[in-house]
Design a protein that fits this description.
By secondary structure, the chain is an alpha+beta fold. It is about 50% helix and about 10% strand. The radius of gyration is 30 Å and the shape is globular. Pfam families: DnaB_bind, DnaG_DnaB_bind, DNAG_N, Toprim_2, Zn_ribbon_DnaG.
Length: about 600
């Protein structure tokens, strides 16, 4: 069994808009995204995805859920398979044992992640300050044509050449987090550096610093480019709890909007290429992190766009990098997701090409980039004489794992037919040799349309606000909860269950994780979920609504009890004392409500 804490962490890290958008064409519609439902046939879009709730819902057939539920419903995956696919895209490893993480362990992990994030943020701030003070670093960037605006946009910085410059950026240079975040290297006991008492030194020295951000914009690593001659030219942060090199792309956070507007993403080889291209009119550029392109990186890009264009040098190294990108892309390409390869003349990289020939000429190069199918067939034929049986056999042998890696699709069918023509092999014989599966059509059942949510009482209003914003539970006192239960005893058990789930989830609680948690515990929360699906609130307004609803409930509960006491005639001393105690509480509550009304009118 996968620990619940891992599922919560996974849902908090991924973006459901990316997951669904990779499979359904979505368009922005107010605060949400809208598209044609993939679960039933419709001509008018009724399928919505909420980036705030991290939840999808179709008002036509009633399907709804988190990113996990979507993959299970859409792709026919099991729960475990859906979690594994999402985890792979997020660069996470699914725990393989049944050991449940205790609240204390979870809290320690969250605290460690937060501490490392704060360290990286502080380091980024320090490096940016150092860049302003380094004439040599500024001169280097100007020489490369980088403007101050671009340096600011990408958060560029400079790591001074001194051995322990970060001492000036951190109060405690001995903190373990500096080593864990990859900012500082610590020598072992038997190293000679210990003799002089200098066990620690900065990893990055005399380098232009490129912050690497995750999809939330948090700095999780750095790439450093040396100013003068030296090796390595580029130095990356090591892998840490925050950073897995094979899952991240430089510049993706900054390029997301531009990618959507351009309709494609351009993948280049270096950090400086990304910055330069953004300045030259191609902000939809990203770069791999000094290693071969991975399927996780391709998958992350395909969540952003339907077209990826890889730009590599035209030399042997560039061709090798392109082949590795091809292999990483094969399992993910489809009839709606395309990959192309742009090979510039050997004397040019994207930056130099745009500067010499202009943005228009480069755009034409991008538009005419070699499709994956053409590059794949070119690679299969390369080095083999198609006029000989042996050459054709070698091409088919090389094609087998590549075709098997591709999902059943019209694109794969077209590639196989073309390969059959090239190798002079009938389609059925080639298909038998390649051992590829035929596409299987899936039938989708249509569910009944759910009714629109009815007008609900105050207690339901409170519960749906808690569902949407679990963090609001901390604002409820025991007296508030008691009043809600007294006000609506039949809803009391559900309220207590929801509050208990929120406490269990802790800081990781969100709309999607809370619903997933309740459903996994077989809690009947579907009507409550349905009441929140087409509702969007600003957090501040939602909190005001919650506070107002709770005050109204308390007011009504007080009035009800006072009425009962008054009807009894207040014959006893205890009844009199209780009545006036309630009356005092009622007056205090009225003052609170009056003060709140004044504050609202003042804005």
């Amino acid at each position: 069994m996968i620990p619940q804490s891992f599922i919560q962490d996974l849902l908090n890290r991924i973006d459901i808009v990316e997951v669904v958008g990779n499979r359904v064409q979505l368009k922005k519609a107010g605060a949400n995204f809208l598209g044609l439902c993939p679960f039933h046939t419709e001509k008018t879009p009724s399928f919505t995805v909420s980036p705030v709730k991290q939840f999808y819902h179709c008002f036509g057939c009633g399907r709804n859920g988190s990113a996990i539920t979507f993959l299970m419903e859409h792709s026919g995956l099991s729960f475990v398979e859906a979690v594994e696919e999402l985890a792979q895209g997020a660069g996470m490893t699914v725990p393989r044992d049944d050991t449940r993480v205790s609240p204390e362990q979870r809290a320690q992990k969250q605290a460690k992640t937060l501490a490392l994030t704060e360290v990286m943020t502080q380091a980024s701030r320090y490096y940016r300050q150092q860049l302003k003070q380094s004439e040599a670093a500024i001169a280097y960037l100007k020489k490369r044509g980088v403007s101050g605006e671009m340096a600011f946009r990408f958060g560029l910085g400079y790591a001074p050449a001194t051995r322990d410059s970060l001492k000036n950026g951190f109060e405690n240079y001995r903190a373990d987090e500096l080593v864990e975040a990859g900012l500082v290297i610590e020598k072992h006991e038997d190293d000679r550096a210990v003799v002089s008492g200098e066990r620690r030194y900065d990893r990055f020295r005399d380098r232009i610093m490129f912050p690497i951000r995750n999809t939330r914009g948090q700095v999780i690593a750095f790439g450093g480019r040396i100013l003068e001659k030296g090796e390595p030219k580029y130095l990356n942060s090591p892998e840490t709890p925050l950073f897995q090199k094979g899952s991240e792309l430089y510049g993706l956070f900054e390029a997301r909007q531009a990618i959507r507007e351009a309709g494609y993403v351009l993948v280049v080889e270096g950090y400086m290429d990304v910055v330069a291209l953004a300045q030259l009119g191609f902000p939809q550029s990203v770069a791999t992190l000094g290693t071969a392109c991975t399927s996780a990186q391709v998958q992350k890009l395909m969540r952003q766009t339907d077209r990826i264009v890889f730009s590599f040098d035209g030399d042997n190294a560039g061709k090798g990098a392109a082949r590795r990108a091809l292999e990483a892309s094969l399992p993910l390409v489809s009839d709606t997701k395309s990959v192309a390869f742009l090979f510039l003349p050997p004397e040019h990289d994207p930056d130099s090409y745009v500067r010499e020939y202009g943005a228009g000429a480069f755009e034409k190069q991008v538009e005419g980039a070699m499709p994956l199918s053409e590059f794949m067939l070119q690679e299969l034929v390369a080095g083999n004489d198609m006029n000989t049986l042996e050459g054709r056999a070698r091409a088919q042998h090389k094609a087998k794992p590549w075709c098997q890696a591709m999902a059943p699709s019209a694109l794969r069918l077209q590639i196989m037919r073309k390969l059959g023509q090239i190798t002079q092999t009938p389609d059925d014989e080639l298909e038998a040799f390649l051992e590829v599966a035929r596409p299987v059509a899936r039938s989708r059942r249509r569910e009944a349309r759910l009714p629109r949510p009815p007008v609900v009482g105050l207690e339901r209003q409170v519960m749906r606000l808690l569902l949407m914003y679990p963090q609001f539970a901390a604002r409820l006192s025991e007296a508030d909860i008691g009043a809600i239960v007294d006000f609506s005893p039949d809803k009391g058990d559900l309220l207590k269950t929801v509050l208990s789930a929120i406490r269990e989830l802790g800081e990781q609680g969100s709309y999607a994780t809370l619903v997933e948690y309740l459903r996994s515990g077989k809690v009947d929360c579907e009507q409550l979920v349905h009441e929140t699906l087409d509702r969007e609130y600003e957090q501040e307004l939602a909190l005001m609504e919650l506070v107002g609803a709770v005050r109204q409930i308390r007011s009504r509960v007080l009035a009800s009890e006072m009425e009962k006491l008054f009807s009894s005639g207040l014959v006893g001393e205890e009844e009199n004392r209780r009545y006036y105690e309630l009356k005092k509480q009622q007056e205090e509550l009225k003052k609170e409500m009056a003060q709140e009304n004044l504050r609202e009118k003042s804005f």
